[in-house]
Amino acid sequence: MTRGRSVTTRWRFVGVLGVMALLFGACSSGAASPSAAASVAASMAPSVAPSESAAAPSQAAAPVTVEWWHISTTDPAKSVFQAIADAYHAAHPNVTIHITILENEAFKTKLATTMQSGQAPDLFQSWGGGIMAAQADATMLKDITADVASWANKDTINEGALKIYQYKDKQYGIPWDMGMIGVWYNKALFTKAGIAAPPATWDDFLADVTKLKAASIVPLAIAGKDMWPSMHLWTYLALRIGGGDALTQMVQTGDWNTDACKAAGDQVLKLNALNPYQPGFKGATYDNEAAAMGNAKVAMEVMGQWAPSVQAADSSSKKGIGADLGWFPFPTVAGGAGAATDGVGGGNGIAVGKNASPEALDFLKFFNSVENASKINTSNIGMSPVIGTESTVTDPNLQAVLAGRGKATFMQLYLDQATSPAMGTAINEATIGLFDGASTPAKVCKAITDAAAAQ
Amino acid sequence: MSATSPRPRVGLRLPTKWVTIILFLLPALALYVLFVLVPVVQAAHYSLYKWNGLQPLTDFVGLKNYVTAFSSDTFKTAVSNNLLIIVLSLALQIPFSLSLAVLLNRRFPGRAIFRLIFFLPYVLSEAITGVVFTLLLQPGALVDSSLNGVGLGGLVQDWLGDAGFVMITLFIIISWKYFGFHMILLMAGLQGIPREIEEAALVDGAGRWQAFRHITLPLLGPTLRVSVFLSMIGAIQLFDMVWVMTGGGPVGASNTMAIAMFKAGYKTSQLGYGSALAVILFAFGLVLALAYQRLVLRRDIEGAVTAFNG
C-alpha cells in the first residue's frame, strides 16, 4: 500500500508538527536538541498505542502500525523491502508497515537521539555486536528469545549469524544478511603478472604482490580516510596468527598487548615494505577503493560480500570487471594457530524495539520466510542466512563466499562492530596508522588496550 | 558565538518603554534561551559524566573528561591545527584580500566582472566546495595533470593523504573560498574613505605607497579589524570542509576541535567526553572573542560590546 492512502488528518497534523519541530531543530546546533526528539516521538506515537491486542492478528483486529527504519536508500533493496511490506499488508489488512528510509549516518544519529528520548522504532537496522549490546543495556530492545524460538533457530537460520544478534544469551534481533570477508581479485591482472593460482599462504601472497609490482600493476587497494577496509586485513592477520580463541580473548579482556597482535602488525610492515597500495591511498575513501577495483586499476582488495556490487556502481562503466573478478579466502600464515576456515564476517539484521507489537514480530517472521529471504539473494542485496535459500545464490563468487561462510570453523564479527563504537573507532584509527607508516605494531596494540581500559 | 545579552536595569517601576522593548524581545529571547543557552548549560552538565547517550546519567567523573582531552595527542593536534589556520589566515589570507580589494577599487574596464568572479567561491556551500576539491585533488586528477602539463610536476603532492601537507592543502582551499568575502568587506571599507584625502596627500607630494600606508590603511582600520575577527572565529569553528575532505585524517593529522567534538559525540558515542570538548571549544571561542573585542575593537564599538555576532 502507498503512504498516501493512510494519511489522515491526524497524520497530517502530526507531520506538520514534525516538520516544524525539525525546522526549529535545524536552527540550533545543540547535540541533542529536544525538538528533534519530540518530532520523532510524535511521528511514532500511533505505533505504540494499539499493541496490546491478541497475539495472532485476526481479520477483525484493531489497526496496528509497525514502524520500520531501514537504511537501504537505493534499489533494488529499497523496492524489494517495500514489496515485502506491501505483501504483508495485503495478507493482514489491519497491519500497516510504516517504513522510514534513512541514509546510514543519518540513521545512526536519528536512532541515538530517539533513544535518548526514551523511544525506539519497532523494527530497525542493526549490525548486532557492541552497539546492539549498548541498546539492550539501555532497555531499548525487546527480548524476543521466546517469541522467535519456533521459527528462528539453528535449523532455520545460520547459527553464527543468529548469534550476532544475541547478547547475554538473549535474542534481540534477526539477521537478514550474513557474509564473510575475503580477498577479491582481478583474474586478468593476475594472469598478466604470471600468477597461476590465488595464494593460499601469506608468503605466497607477498610473493604475488612482488610479481604484480614487477608487472607495473598496483597490487592492493585500501582506504585511508575510511580506515576500516585495512582494519579487516589486519584482523585477519591477527586471527590467522593467534587463532580464534586468542582473538576472542583479546576482544573480551581488552588486553591487546599480545604476541598475536604484535605479530599481525609485523606482517603489515612486511606488506608495507613492498609498497603495494594504490596512489593516494592515505586519503582514499572506500568508494575510491571500489572504483580502483571496478576500473581494473588494482589487482586485489580485502572486502566483504557486497564488494562486486559496489565495484560495479563505482566503476566508470557501471559494470565493474565482470567475469574477471574472483574471490579467495584470506591466506594462512605459516606457524599461525588459525585455520584457513576461520573467518571474519558480519552482515545486516533487524533489531526489535522495546515496544514492538506481536504484529511486528509476525512481520519479521514473514520477512525471513524462505520465499522472501530468497529475494535478498536473487536481487543481490545481500546473502540471506535463512537455511533453504542457498540455491538462490547463483553468482560463482558469491557461491564461494557462501561456501566459506558454511565451512567456517570460527567467525569473528567485524571488530569495529563487535566492540563498542568508541573501541571500534580506536581500533580503526590505530590500525590505519600502521598502514600509513605512522605507527608501530607495539603502539597499535597499546592504543587499542588503552582504549579498552578507558571503557 | 555571541556575548552576554544586555541586562536591562530593572527599577521599582518599569517605564512603558522598557515594557514594550521586553515584549518585543520576548519571542527571540525565548528561542535564544531554549536553543542556545539551555544546550550550553546542558553540555557543561553532561561533560562531568561518562555517558554513552543511552543510559541514564549516573557515572559522575568530575573533570576527568577535561583531563583526558588535554592529555590526548589527538586533541592537542586539533588545537594546534586551529591555531595554525588562524595564523595563516591572518598572515596570508587577509593581506591577499586587501591587495585585491585595493586593486579592484581602482577604475578599470571589467572591474565588475572581476569582483563577481572573486566573490563567487563564497557563494558555494562548504560541503560542495569540499566535494569538488576532493575530486580535483585525487591522485592523477585535474590538479595533478595540470601541474604536470605545465612542467611543474615536481610540485605534485599527495594533497589530502600526506600528513605533513594536508593542513596546507586545506588552508589553500579555505582561503580560496573566503578571500572573496574579505575582499568585498574591505572594498566596502575602502569606498567609505573619501577620495579627497588621498588626493590631497598625493598633491602634497606623498608617493602611492606612502598614501596607502599612512592614509588608506589607518582609515580602513575598523573594517580590517572586523575582517580579522570574522576570520579568527571562522578558523576556530572550522568543520564542514575538513570533515568532507579528510574526516580529520590521515591518521588524525587534520583534526580540528570541532571535528574531535563531532567524532566523540556522533561516531564513538562518548557524549560526556564530546560535551567536554564542546565546552572547551566554547570557552576558547568566547575568551578569544571577548578579548579581541575588549582589546582591539574597543575604539570601534565604544561601549556596545555586543555589537557583533561572529
Q: What are the defining features of this structure?
A:
heterodimer, A: 455 residues, alpha/beta, six-stranded mixed β-sheet, four-stranded mixed β-sheet, 49% helix, globular, B: 310 residues, mainly alpha, MetI-like fold, 69% helix, 0% strand
Quick gist of this model?
The complex is a heterodimer of chains A (455) and B (310). By secondary structure, chain A is α/β, with parallel strands linked by helices.
What does it look like?
The complex is a heterodimer of chains A (about 450) and B (about 300). With about 450 residues, chain A is α/β, with parallel strands linked by helices. Helix content of chain A is about 50%, strand content about 15%. In chain A, the strands form three sheets. In chain A, strands 1, 2, 3, 6, 11 and 12 form a six-stranded mixed beta sheet that branches. In chain A, helix 11 crosses helix 19 (about 420-435). The radius of gyration of chain A is 23 Å and the shape is globular. The two termini of chain A are about 45 Å apart. By secondary structure, chain B is an all-alpha fold. Chain B has one domain (about 70-305): MetI-like (MetI-like fold, Orthogonal Bundle). Chain B is about 70% helix and about 0% strand. Chain B has helices at about 15-45, 65-70, 75-105, 110-125, 125-135, 140-150, 165-190, 195-205, 210-235, 240-245, 255-265, 270-295, 300. The longest helix of chain B is centred in the first third of the chain and has 33 residues, at about 75-105. The chains are: A alpha/beta (about 450), B mainly alpha (about 300). Chains A and B meet through helix 5, helix 6 and helix 19 of A and helix 1, helix 11 and helix 12 of B.
